[in-house]
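Give me structure tokens for this 349-residue protein.
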Amino acid sequence: MRRFHRPRPLRTRPSVSVVIPCYNYGHYLPQAVAGALAQEGVDVDVLIVDDASPDGSADVARSLAAADPRVDVLVHERNAGHIQTYNDGLSRVHGDYVTLVSADDVLMPDALTRAVALMEHHPSVGLVYGYARSFTDDLPVGPTRTRSWSVWSGRDWLGTAARQGRCFLVSPEAVMRREALEQTDGYDPRLPHSGDFDMWLRTSVNWDVGRVDGPIQAAYRVHDANMHLTEYAGWLTDLRERRRTFDILFDERAPDVADVQSLRQDAMKALAKEAVRRGREVAHGDSESVLDYLRFAAETHLAIRHTRAWSRAWAEAVEGRTSEPAPWARATAKVRHHLRWRFERRYGT
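Here you go.
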């Protein structure tokens, strides 16, 4: 159950550690560091972890550290990959609160102040997020006033994520209480595509989850080198990794927690339904591609084969029978998608 709370100002001055992993993003580092430091009412320290970038990123990082005592640098002698880079940085933090922001993303001014204020007033909350807006060149401009705080019990938030089969966070907007972070064992190397999602799910098993409603909390940069567009591109890959993340949650993270285990079927059903829908949307008439999505759906939730959506997709892929949706159906779907986006933008789930 979500509860709305009136925002309240900080009464203390907590410390926040910002870890900025970097690989060949040295040209973005000055903006990322400036965003992390532009926070009133909290003491911020920044650790840049350069993963042996060949583009001179380490030199940029060292120059930023030389210019501001709040900035420190860790440089890998050899490339270790992004998961190890995340964990190396997080293992060295000392702040009361922690966030990990990729070098190509940017925290908005006072985003940490707003997130930390929520957790200071709600000690049961271990994870806070907000609205992360994508951008390419210029940083987004939007409201800065916090409309409300949303607070869920962790299990309720987890239930919503399972029933929708997906993550509600982009990543740079997430701030964790250090105690909550320490209860995890860091990012799981088995989940290079969905380590963030795994971290949020694990946290929600033991901690409540909060959200800062209203302002843009972080800016997520979209460019050709984004990991989700290169190494882990494709909806089917994303679906497979989300299923693996849920499997690990149910099998290993909380195997003896009954109300978590009860969500397994909901999560698998949601992933299967999305697979059928995505197959029809993104396969562009390629029958074998549609069948890949349908196979994934059936492996994930066998009963999906008895739905109308499955039958329609199967007929199109195997029997060559296609049926264009009526104009009213396309318009309805467009409106539904827009309303869903507006709701999630405002309320976070």
